[in-house]
Design goal:
Layout lengths: L7 H7 L10 H16 L5 E3 L5 E3 H4 L19 E3 L2 E3 L7 H7 L2 E9 L11 E12 L8 H24 L4 E8 L2 E11 L2 E11 L1 H6 L6 E9 H8 L13 H4 L20 E8 L6 H12 L3 E12 L2 E10 L8 H19 L2 E2 L1
Parallel strand pairs: 1-5
Antiparallel strand pairs: 2-4, 3-4, 5-6, 6-10, 7-8, 8-9, 9-10, 11-13, 11-14, 12-13
C-alpha cells in the first residue's frame, strides 16, 4: 500500500467537526462526562477537544512504545500523509503535549483507522482520553510499587464513577489486558441489557512513556481511553455507526442538550441491495485494502461487506465478498448500484492486484 493513502472520502470527514455540534449525541455524551469530572474533581482536570488530526509518527507510535512490527504501524491499518505523519489513530497521541503543563486532563477528538465495514465499524470515530499523574515525594510514597498501587486504586475509582454516571447502577468487572503504553493494563466491562460490554481500556502509565514526556522518575499516573460511539450506541440505542455522521433531520432532530441521553426512535429502514464481488487472490492480499476500495466507490451507501465463500483450486485461492448497499435516507435502485459495482470491478484489479472471476 503506497503512502500517502488518504482517500477523498476520508478527507471529507476531517471537516465534519461533530464534537462542535452541541445537540449531537456524541457531544451530549462527551459533555455529560466532562460535567461529571468537573463535579467530582472540581478544578483538577483540564479539558481539550480541538487538537489537529494530523500527528507525528513519533507521538502516535514511537513515544507510546508501539513496536515497529505492530500492525498499526503500517499503511494497511493507518492513514499516512507521509512517512513521518499520520491521521491520529487515538487521542493518546496528544498526551505528550498535555503532560508538559497539566497533571490531569481529558481529551476528545475524531480518530481514524482503516477497518472492516459493518454497523459497528467506520474509518473514523471519536475517542475520549483521560489521564492523571502525581509525584511520589509529594504523596509521601517511597517507591514505584506504592505509586502503582495508589494509581490503580484511583484509576478504578475514577472509571467506575464515570461508568455509573453514564450507564447507571450496573454490574462491572475488570479484565487484565495489554497495551504497550501502560503497565499493568486493564479493560473495564459493564453488564448492559444482560450482556458484558467492553467499555474501555486503561492502565498505569509505563515509566518509559512518562520519560518520553519529559517527566522524572518520581512521576507516575494512569490513563484511559474509549470510543464515544461504542458508549453512545448503547445509551442512545443507535443501531448503525454511520448515523453519527449523517445530516438526516430524522436523526439529528431527535437529540438536544436539554433532553440528555434520550433513546433513538428508528425511522423507516430502506431495503438493502446485495452485490457480490469474486476474485482470485494475489500473493499478498489485505482485507482492509478491499474495504478501503469499496468505501471509495460506495461511500456511506455501503452498510456491510462480508466474505461468503473461499476455495482453493490448482494452488490459487479465490474469495467472494457480498456487499450490502443501503441508504439511510432513500431507496436505492438496482441500476444506480450497478453503476457503482461496475466502477468497483474496474478499479479492483489495479488497486488490489486481484483477478476477477
Amino acid at each position: 500500500m503506497a503512502i500517502p493513502n488518504i482517500s477523498p472520502k476520508i478527507y471529507e470527514l476531517l471537516g465534519k467537526k461533530i464534537l462542535q455540534r452541541q445537540n449531537h449525541p456524541l457531544t451530549i455524551l462527551k459533555n455529560k462526562i466532562y460535567e461529571h469530572f468537573q463535579k467530582v474533581y472540581p478544578g483538577v482536570f483540564t479539558m481539550k477537544d480541538d487538537f489537529p488530526q494530523r500527528v507525528s509518527v513519533e507521538d502516535n507510535f514511537v513515544k507510546l512504545l508501539i513496536p515497529d512490527d505492530h500492525p498499526t504501524r503500517f499503511p494497511t491499518d493507518t492513514y499516512f500523509f507521509d512517512k513521518n505523519t499520520v491521521l491520529r489513530t487515538h487521542t493518546t497521541a496528544h498526551d505528550f503535549e498535555m503532560l508538559k503543563n497539566h497533571n490531569a486532563f481529558l481529551i476528545a477528538g475524531d480518530v481514524y483507522r482503516r477497518d472492516e465495514i459493518d454497523a459497528k465499524h467506520y474509518p473514523a470515530f471519536h475517542q475520549l482520553e483521560g489521564a492523571r499523574i502525581w509525584n511520589l515525594e509529594s504523596l509521601g510514597l517511597s517507591n514505584h510499587n506504592q505509586g502503582k498501587e495508589f494509581a490503580l486504586y484511583e484509576l478504578k475509582k475514577t472509571i467506575e464513577g464515570v461508568a455509573e454516571e453514564v450507564f447507571g447502577d450496573i454490574e462491572m468487572r475488570w479484565i487484565d489486558a495489554y497495551f504497550p503504553f501502560t503497565e499493568p493494563s486493564l479493560e473495564l466491562e459493564v453488564k448492559w441489557q444482560g450482556e458484558w460490554l467492553e467499555a474501555l481500556g486503561c492502565g498505569v502509565y509505563h515509566p518509559n512513556v512518562l520519560k518520553n514526556a519529559g517527566k522524572d522518575s518520581n512521576t507516575f499516573g494512569w490513563a484511559f481511553g474509549f470510543g464515544l460511539e461504542r458508549w453512545a450506541m448503547k445509551v442512545f440505542d443507535i443501531p448503525d455507526i454511520r448515523l453519527f455522521w449523517s445530516d438526516d433531520k430524522r436523526f439529528t432532530s431527535q437529540f438536544s442538550a436539554e433532553k440528555g441521553l434520550t433513546k433513538f426512535v428508528p425511522f423507516s429502514k430502506y431495503p438493502v441491495c446485495y452485490k457480490d464481488l469474486s476474485f482470485w487472490l494475489p500473493e499478498i492480499f489485505v482485507e482492509n485494502d478491499l474495504f478501503e476500495v469499496v468505501r471509495d466507490v460506495g461511500g456511506d451507501l455501503v452498510e456491510k461487506v462480508e466474505k461468503i465463500d473461499e476455495f482453493e483450486k490448482k494452488g490459487k485461492k479465490s474469495r467472494c465478498y457480498r456487499i450490502h448497499y443501503r441508504s439511510m435516507d432513500r431507496s436505492l435502485s438496482n441500476e444506480e448500484i450497478d453503476v457503482l459495482q461496475v466502477r468497483l470491478r474496474e478499479i479492483a484489479p489495479e488497486k488490489l492486484g486481484v483477478v476477477l472471476r
